[in-house]
Amino acid sequence: MSVSSKKSKGTITIEGHELTITNPEKPLWPEAGITKLDFLQKLIELSPYLLRYCRDRHLTTIRFPHGIHDKSFYQKNSPEPVPEFVTLAPLDGINYVNLDSLPTLIWLGNLACLEFHPSFHHIGDTLPAEWLIDIDPSLEVEPRIMEAAHVIGEILDSLHIRSVPKTSGATGVQIYVPIQRGYTFEQLRKIGHFIGTYAVKKYPGLFTVERLKKNRGDLIYFDYLQHWYGKTLSAPYTPRARAAGTVSTPLLWQEVEQRSDPREFTLHVIVDRIHKMGDLIEQVPPQNLDAVLAHLE
């Protein structure tokens, strides 16, 4: 399945739905040489994995109508008009898109929705679907980010919690923990607070739990608060609006130990990587957190 048009407009038929593709040659990531046509083709290849983490969620996108260096805006309410194949997911007065199909993904991609940020819970549910910790540097270039992620991974491992590190696609790293169903956001925040305060105490020159960026200095923010009902983080396999065309990419812990550079994982290499390594998140079974919670309570 592919799009091919040198014109300012073309069409593509996906799963029986005809979509209009506008300005296919528009540069979206100019430094990386990625046009809208390139982007849409990558989305088609990424769709089995990206949809896995966005389907049946309340989706927020970030749109860059003229590429990553021009104006952007967050899109929570569905763009108008809404094609008949798009499923909406209303919540608190907002008509979110449910990114549950390839036609919906390509429709959003054509509108230059470059980033996909799903809710932490499924539609119609109040319980978290997974647990995410955000390791967020205060500096734009932070050579210690993989060291910080490795430390948190070791703490989780000492608690017998298996996890998957993933690049945010921007400057940070997120720790993704598949969980058994039934835990609440409050319980996960309690564990996060415990790990964060321990990390700050043991590594005071590396971590902080200070929410205000202006008060963090050069410390790396251990963000256990972002994981909450109604909030979002970058989905696994979402592109990000960074010059290199980076993608939020699950990693092996060995790659973290080797201090891999998050900027290595781009739209140019992500599909081959998945074909070679599979979805690393899916390879970790849902974790039971009962023992840790019993200890804290």
From TrEMBL:
Pfam families: LigD_Prim-Pol
DNA ligase D polymerase domain span: 35-280
Signal sequence interval, chain numbering: none
Domain of life where this protein originates: Bacteria
InterPro entries named in the record: LigD_pol_dom, NHEJ_LigD
This protein's name: DNA polymerase domain-containing protein
Organism of provenance: Paenibacillus lutrae
Source species taxonomy: Bacteria, Bacillati, Bacillota, Bacilli, Bacillales
